[in-house]
Amino acid sequence: MEGAPPYVIEMLHITKEFPGVRANDDITLQLKHGEIHALLGENGAGKSTLMSVLFGLYKPEAGEIRKDGKTVRINDPNDATALHIGMVHQHFKLIEVFSVLDNIILGAEDTKLGFLQKKDARKKVQALSERYGLKVDLDAKVEDITVGMQQRVEILKMLYRENEVLIFDEPTAVLTPQEIGELMHIMRGLTREGKSILFISHKLNEIMEVADRVTVLRKGKHIGTVHTKETTKTELSRMMVGRPVQMVVDKEPADAGDDVLTVKDVSVPSRLYKRDAVSKVNFSVRAGEILCIAGIDGNGQTELIHALTGLERPSCGHISLCGIDITSASIRQRSLKGMSHIPEDRHKHGLVLDFTLEQNLVLQRYYEPRFRNGIFIRFDEVRSYANALIRQYDVRSGQGPITPVRSMSGGNQQKTIIAREIDRDLPLIVAVQPTRGLDVGAIEYIHGQLVAQRDAGKAILLVSLELDEVMNLSDRILVMYGGEIVGQFDPAQVSTEELGLYMAGAKRQKEEAWRV
């Protein structure tokens, strides 16, 4: 636009404080018209806080926000929407029992004489869907669609409100590799249409692929803004963490021992369809190895893990842990018999969000003699234990052990779960997407912890959608497709392209190759 200011958004000298922490310390960020601008930083670096200031969720203690060169006041999300600023949050803001269409138009409904004009809204949403390649079923309930589809609903919500500035907070944290590729394509299409995008991410590959410029934050401070064409992943990771980061997992070949977990002919019914989500699955995990289950999301991995950890009951088959049948055991019994679990959904199954950090760290252990005196909990011992884990795992929180977990960043919530589960020192660790939402420094640390546990003789069952993680970390790979295991591989002898064919159902090994 000739004569238009060079920046659509300017956040100048923004400072935002919370009890015990300065989340944003004199940060300046400038977004050009039609660019994808990435915001990169460690967990707790202040990225989401800065974007929440722009969207009106927080009021800064100091600083100025300009839109198209003019100073604006954004007191709440309604002010942001009026300025055509929209945001897709890391944890989606959708009403699960409403339809897709109802979620998109909620709060921006067209009415005539007090009556909702849903037909006109449907036409507008369908036109937007076709224009931007965002195919969704408008009549489906949100609770019945995939996470990738839910994200499309969030994007359509922004487009329906004719937003010009689109904020994506960790948009790929819950997506499959295929969905990530689709999102990158959609983002480029949006900028071609004149939209400007702010993109929070930890994933350097995605930033290098799609972003025009990158602003790096570290511990609430602005470290620098660079063009992606003029930098490297190594340099960005150094700016983000403050030191060189090991991108490849350094580990010796596995020295596998006896079976720790054995799964025989296990089937798990589907909650959505009249068929099994998992069908006659067989495998074992041995002491001293990392066995990874790879696959595109929605092929039975979640249901299988729920059956192994006691969140669901299998319809048939047997599960053994350290030689003991646990098929019908409760979650507590499985824990006592030697199973740690890093769950896929940290909010639903990993944490009690309204508890403090120290309370969450002892959720699995508060009943042990160390933490109780008769029927009373020894809070001094809980505090001491929590402080030790916080230091060891670098869990960042504004008020230390008494911080409400709900107020912590997603990455530090994940570190809390990992610290709790690894420290229990049990023979089996079931780790589902353990590095989801973590920065490269934290990923390096967690991978190192898992390898150290393997080398100490633990059996590790890893479920990951990240092919780089699958190839780097695993000693054996099983691929799931359509609720069945379709192949077993040595990561040193298979390519990501070959794995992709099995994950897509294009190839399949004979069952004898992996059956227990």
Distinctive features:
single chain; 516 residues; alpha/beta; Rossmann fold; 6-stranded mixed sheet; 24 strands
Descriptive report:
By secondary structure, this protein is an alpha/beta fold. The protein has 3 domains: 7-241, P-loop containing nucleotide triphosphate hydrolases (Rossmann fold), CATH 3.40.50; 247-338 and 427-516, P-loop containing nucleotide triphosphate hydrolases (Rossmann fold); 353-425, no CATH class. Helices cover 32% and strands 27% of the residues. It is built from 17 helices and 24 strands. A hairpin with a 2-residue loop joins strand 1 (7-18) and strand 2 (21-32). Helix 14 (410-423) runs parallel beside helix 15. The termini are far apart.
Side by side, the strands of the main sheet go 6-9-10-3-11-12
Provide the number of structural domains. 3
**CATH level 3 topology of the largest domain:** Rossmann fold
* CATH architecture call of the largest domain: 3-Layer(aba) Sandwich
Rg (CA only):
24 Å
Q: According to CATH, what is the class of the largest domain?
A: Alpha Beta
Overall pLDDT, averaged? 88
Instruction: Indicate the overall shape.
Output: globular
**Helix content class:** 25-40%
Beta fraction of the residues?
Answer: 25-35%
